Amino acid sequence: MLGSLRRFYPVAAFFAGFIWDALTIGQRVRPLDFVRLGLFLAGAAALAWWLARRDARALLPPPLDAGWRARLGWQAPYLAVQFFFGGIFSALFILYFKSSGHFGAWLVALLLGSLLVANEFVGERYGRRFTLTWALFAINAILLANFALPYALGSLDPRWFYVSTLAGVLLAQACWWLAPGRPGRIGPAWLLAGVLLAAWQGGMIAPVPLVKKELVIGQGFEQRGGDYLLQVEPAPAWQFWRSQAAIVHVPPGGRLYGLSAVHAPSGVTARLEHRWEFLGTAGWQIQGRSRFESSGGRERGFRGYSWISAPAAGAWRLVVATQDGRTIGILPFTVLQQAPDAVVLRRY
After folding, report:
1. Bigger pLDDT: 225 or 284?
2. Which pTM does this prediction carry?
């Protein structure tokens, strides 16, 4: 019975880390979170070294007729490594997924999660646990550095992505170099770093640590005290997943407003922009752009607004992004040139 369940130990450890993180990470990123994740990464590095030392000394697992304590003691380091990896990645998976505001970024987050879960199954089966260990370590170190460095410096300069990616893979390289016997291969770790850099160039990496809180369009915008008021067309009752209608009715010559709220941790400043894009014969074409700067710390996100006058009928989208081109959120909609049937006044 225990033998048949052994192959599921790493998966159980992975999900244990995910559940632990889901219960403890909370809604606000704190320095203590990075300390905890850094300790997890250090613990994984120490255990990887210990496992490499055990492998270099050609120690054999206990026989099948040994007691459960002996078998569990042999398996415990593997469980602990997978728990540490699960704790780090589950936290970053949640944060990266929350920062994903368009299909490409969602796809990368989901693919990373799928690959890690799949690797938990195939690692022991194919006997390549050390190569898998270095690859998982590199992914966790890179993603953690990608998030932590901009947070620590209070800057979203694109250069920090390249610096943090290089730092993460070099840390994995150093751990492999110091491991007794240098088991496994470190090449896949560098390959994964290259894949992440390619995804970054393609705009498929979420612009952490920014999180889209709100992205709406409407008419009759008004700023009253500290509140923004906007007339929004509600979605049909059967579209329960939408906060507003996908078709916007704008009278000829009217003005359409866009409002976004983007959360950034306290101390982080981001230069953002709204882009109004129309789908023409040559594809998506920018019809208007508004740039502004946000400061982190506001729980509901830093608000920005813009408008487009007399929008043509057809397919549109409002894009909120960093000024260096990283997309935070996209709101597609269709404009019809006629007065709206019903609107609701919403406060932001």
Report:
1. 284
2. 0.74
